[in-house]
Design brief:
This protein has 103 residues and is an alpha+beta fold. Helix content is 27%, strand content 14%. The protein has helices at 15-21, 67-73, 81-84, 93-102, and strands at 7-10, 26-31, 34-37. Strands 1-2-3 form a three-stranded antiparallel β-sheet, with no helix packed on it. The longest helix has 10 residues, at 93-102.
Length: 103
C-alpha cells in the first residue's frame, strides 16, 4: 500500500511464464475493485523493497510473515538481490534465454 493505492508485483518463475508475461516483473495496481496490470515504471520507487515476499519464503510454513520476519530472513545472503528489492534492470535467466534466441 502506498499513498492509498495497493500494488503487487509478481515475477515469472520460468521460461514458459516469462513467455506468457513477457517481462521479469509483472506489476499490478488495484483499481475500482480489480487488479490492473501496469508498466513497471508506475510502481513507486519508494516501495521497491517494502514488503518483498518471495514465494519460497513460505517453506517454513508460517501462516503470517511480519516485516520484522522478512528483515531477519533477508539477512541470509543466499537470497538473490532481485528477491530483496525490485530492480528495473534485472534480467532473469529466462529473459536472457529469450534475448539470446532473438540474436
Amino acid at each position: 500500500m502506498y499513498q492509498d493505492k495497493l500494488y503487487v508485483v509478481g515475477d515469472p518463475r520460468g521460461l514458459r511464464e516469462f513467455r506468457q508475461y513477457g517481462a521479469d516483473y509483472v506489476p499490478y495496481r488495484y483499481e475500482a475493485g480489480q487488479w490492473v496490470r501496469i508498466p513497471l515504471n508506475e510502481i513507486p520507487v519508494a516501495i521497491y523493497d517494502t514488503n518483498m515476499y518471495p514465494g519460497n519464503m513460505a517453506l517454513d510454513r508460517r501462516k503470517q510473515v511480519s516485516v520484522a520476519d522478512k528483515v531477519e530472513i533477508f539477512k541470509d545472503d543466499r537470497w538473490d538481490p532481485s528477491q530483496r528489492r525490485i530492480d528495473p534492470n534485472y534480467k532473469s535467466r529466462a529473459s536472457q534465454i529469450i534475448e539470446g534466441d532473438k540474436k
